[in-house]
Amino acid sequence: MAIAGMNHFTVLTAALEDSVAFYTKALGFETGERPPFSFPGAWLYAAGAPIIHLVAKDKLPASTAGVLDHMAFSATDLPGVANHLRQLDIPFNLGRQPGTGIWQLFMHDPNGAKIELDFDPQEPAP
Q1: Catalytic residue among 17, 30, 33, 116, which?
Q2: How is the beta sheet containing 93-96 ordered, strand by strand?
Q3: pTM
Q4: Would you say residue 42 has pLDDT above 90?
């Protein structure tokens, strides 16, 4: 497996409009297209790429993870990665992103941080 680069950060927010305003006005992000998820949120772009994914929540979690939900990376070789994780006894969840078909593999690091690996929709299922 080879990590190809940083994909995005997801930030939980109880104030979606205020968060969009902050990231667009203070940091220069631009709002852009977002797949038709079943929950509210916004995607914020830099240089044409969706870097910040805001997810609206009625109440933020009290856990030590804070407002950062997970980190995501672009990756290759979905069957090889899934096999490697199974060999290491690392549990994961795999699904496809609505609208795009991108494979999304989620796991947690030893500290409980959620990690997402995104694979091209054309990759074969593991």
Answers
A1: 116
A2: 30-32, 41-46, 49-56, 3-13, 68-75, 114-119, 103-108, 93-96
A3: 0.71
A4: yes
